[in-house]
Specification:
alpha+beta; Alpha-Beta Plaits; four-stranded antiparallel β-sheet; RraB_dom; RraB-like_sf; Regulator of ribonuclease activity B
């Protein structure tokens, strides 16, 4: 199949989704997608976490000293069909939220599950 650039644009998000599709991942099924925010201060990460909990988001938080001392990572776990437009919308929303708490948006990831009947 040739790549549909409307569904899988030629950018980072489109490339990841295209690779998932090419690897046999069913993008019409819900996946847990993890969006990450990074904070230099624990207090800011905690305030952002409370805000996201009040927005009914599923979150986790950890200190990632392997990357930098005092780097707090806040992960938001969203179960959704991996759709380009929806991912871009969530990235924009999480970017704004991170900035409100002196953090930054740090990308998204998704575990892919390929079921092989053989």
């Amino acid at each position: 199949m040739s790549r549909d650039y409307e569904q899988f644009p030629d950018n980072d998000n489109g490339n990841v989704l295209w690779q998932m599709y090419e690897d046999g991942d069913d993008l019409t099924e819900p996946h847990e997608i993890e969006f990450s925010l990074a904070f230099e201060k624990q207090e800011n990460a905690e305030k952002c976490a409370i805000f996201l909990l009040l927005e009914e988001q599923k979150i986790s938080m950890y200190l990632d000293e392997e990357v930098a001392p005092n780097l707090w990572i806040l992960s938001i776990h969203v179960t959704m069909e991996p759709d380009y437009a929806d991912i871009v919308d969530l990235e924009e929303w999480f970017t704004k939220i991170a900035q409100q708490y002196q953090g930054e948006y740090d990308g998204w990831g998704c575990m892919t599950y390929v079921y092989d009947e053989d």
